[in-house]
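pasting for ref. prot 1 ->
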Amino acid sequence: MESVIKNQELYSVAEIALVYRTAVKPSLRPKVTSSRIAYEVLLAGWDEERIEFVEQFKVLLLNTANRVLGIYELSTGGVAATVADPRLVFSAALKANASGIILAHNHPSGNLNPSEADKGLTLKIAGGGKLLDIQVLDHLIVTPEGYYSFRDEGLI
């Protein structure tokens, strides 16, 4: 026979709150209409002391009007790689109530060509976005001197 535990402490659970706060009025948020504008917004928010030092992965979160809700710094890695967990990409997008996202990472070497791992990750995240109705609009590889757009090159 099963014993019944009557200790209410065993049933205490954490409360989860989903909140998005911003001090920026919607009309003042940048509107992303091209990969060039996305690059400029991302570059303005990138730590210039790290962009040529370590690889970082960021997510540009957009509302339905393609206005920037924010930039989420997902990870910082080493000289040649960083980890981008798709679950964390979408947890940020869901928390911000984003309708679209633009993935971005830098190549400290200055090489703008995507690796096979970059291509595979992009397709994996884009597939997850379809399930969640969050459009992956682009993936940019960023350097101080330029960028590579998966969308512009037909890879997404």
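and prot 2 ->
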Amino acid sequence: MLLWYTDVAMCELLGMNCNVPTDIVFSFTGFCERGGRTADHVDGWGIGFFEGRGCRVFLDVAPACESPVAKFVKTYPIKTLTAIAHIRKATHGAVALENTHPFVREVWGRYWLFAHNGSLEAFTPALSGRFVPVGDTDSERAFCAILDAFAARGEKEMPPLEKLYQTLAEVTAWIASHGKFNYLLGSEHFLFAYCATSLHYLIRQAPFRTAHLADADVTVDFSSVTTPKDRVAIIATRPLTDNEEWVGVAPGSLVLFQDGEVVMG
């Protein structure tokens, strides 16, 4: 039986990071059900994929469960190393395309995707002007503040992930002091995930098993569509399947995924 989750008051996040290009169709199918069918996140949705140095983003203000664009994405198995998706329940900013996550910007000659679940109060950072919000959400302001902190390091090239993790942890602590700040931030080969209140992940690797979605009667036998070397990390606000063991991220934790596994946090 499918349940309507009335206790989930804000947006939801979905991320994927892999060691080989993989499609997110299965997880995205269940995730979309929460955009108006099994939960009331009806104020738009979006998903972004990295393809080499490029970034492909789909956004729509329609509920994900009935969006023709979401239907297209579910039937178009884009293979990627990193993907970020979001279903929105608006708390700051109008229901509009410019306020729909994930947001994308360039730093160090590479694209970055960002999506946020939560609400920040009295958050009016003094931004440098290099990164300026297009919409009027607290989420996009937070993204610009994070990228300002990255740029303030002064490097012409992206620093090692260990140093970037330290910078991100510092700016995250400051932003999180303004409210609830669950987020996903990623680029081509890696994905940062921060838990303020609720975030879970699982890592699929050999021996692969059958998985069943919690929000739709859909099952996939991953042993038939993978190789023994494949490894995929799925990150979500709430577990997307009901027959796999998900790991709850401790509140206040920043986790870095690379090649489909946890490398920091």
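Helices lie at 25-33, 68-74, 138-151, 161-176.
The longest strand covers residues 12-22.
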